Amino acid sequence: MKLSWDQVCKPKIEGGLGLGNLKQANDVSCLKLIWRILSHGDSLWVKWIERFWFDSWSPLGRLYDIAGDRGVIDMGINRQMTVADAWRTRHRRRHRNSARNAIEDVLHSQWLERTDRRDKIMWRGTHDIFKEKFSTKDTWNHIWITSNTMDPHRGVWFTHETPKHSFSVCLAAHVRLATGGRMLRWNRGETGVCYLCTNCIESRNHLFFSCSYSAEILEALARGLFQQHYTSDWNQLLTIVPAQRKDNVACFLMKYIFQTTVYTIWHERNRRRHDEAPKSAATLIQGIDKQMRNRITTIQRKRDRRYEASFQRWLQSRS
C-alpha cells in the first residue's frame, strides 16, 4: 500500500480515500450497545443485562456477587427477574443472613423512592444538540480526530471522475508515486533519470509538468481550457483546477483533462521503464482527446443536463 492505513481512512476532504476505520467502527458499535442499555432499548442484549441479580442498580453493586446461588433460592427472586418484577411479585422478608437483609433493605428503599416520572436518556449529537435517538454518523464524527483539510481534494474527487485517474492524482499529490528520484533512496543502482526526456532526475514536479515531453502534452490539451490561468507548475495546477466552481462545464473539463493527462503520462513512463516502444507526444495527445470525447458521450447518455455543453466547449478549446 503506497499510502498508510491511517491516511487511507481519512475523509477525502482531508486527503484520504474515505474508507472506514475498523477500530473506530467497533468503538461506535460499542457505544451503541451502551446507549441501548442506558435507554432501556427493547433488545435481547438489554433484557439479558438488566436483571435484578446481574445489573448494578443498587448501592451494593452487583447483587449476585454478594448472595450467590444460595441467595437466589433463599430470597425467592428468580435469576431472570428484573427489579420491577421483584417489586411486583414478592413481599419483603427477614433473613438470618445479614447480607440478604441488606439486599431486602435496598430493594425496599428503592421502591419507596420510585417516581412515576421516567428519566429521559438523550444522546449528544452534532453541535451539542441532544436527541432521543442514537446517531451512528454523529457518534463517528465525535470520535474522529480531524486533521487539516486538503485544499486540492475537489480537484481529485468529483462527479463523473474516472477512479483510476483520480487515484493516480491522489498518489501524486501525496508524493507517493515511485518516481526515479524516490527510487534512488531505495536502490542506489537506479539512475533516477526521467524516462520521458532523459535529461533530469525524475521527481514528481519534473514529471508533472516540468519535463519537456509532458509539458508539450499538457499545453496542447489544456491551454485552450485554462486560457489566462494556464500553467505547467504542479502546485499551481492543484490550486487552479478546483477553483473554477461557478462554471460546471469548465470546471469538469479542467479537472478531467488534468487527471487524464497525469494518468496517461504516468502510464507511458511505466511502459518505457519496462522497455516497451515509446509513444510520441502527438500519439498521447490524440489518445487523451479520444478519452475526453468518450467520457463526455457517456455523461450525455446518463442525461446529466449540467454538462450538456461539454462537447461544444471541448471542441472550441481544441480549435
Task: Tell me what the structure shows.
The protein is mostly helical and 319 residues long. The protein folds into 2 domains: 74 residues, no CATH class; 166 residues, no CATH class. Helices cover 56% and strands 1% of the residues. It contains 16 helices and 2 strands. A two-stranded antiparallel sheet has the order 1-2. A hairpin with a 5-residue loop joins strand 1 and strand 2. Helix 12 packs across helix 16. It is elongated, with a radius of gyration of 33 Å. The model has no long low-confidence stretch (mean pLDDT 83).
The biggest sheet amounts to: 2 strands, antiparallel
Number of domains: 2
User: How many H/I helical runs?
Assistant: 16
The assigned structural class equals: mainly alpha
Strand fraction equals: under 5%
What percent of residues adopt helix (DSSP H or I)?
A: 55-70%
Order of helices and strands: HHHHHHEEHHHHHHHHHH
Stretches with pLDDT under 50, minimum 5 residues: none
Shape: elongated
How many strands appear in the DSSP assignment?
2
Average pLDDT taken over every residue:
83
Strand order of the largest sheet: 1-2
Could you give the distance between the termini? 42 Å
From the alpha carbons, calculate the radius of gyration and give it in angstroms: 33 Å
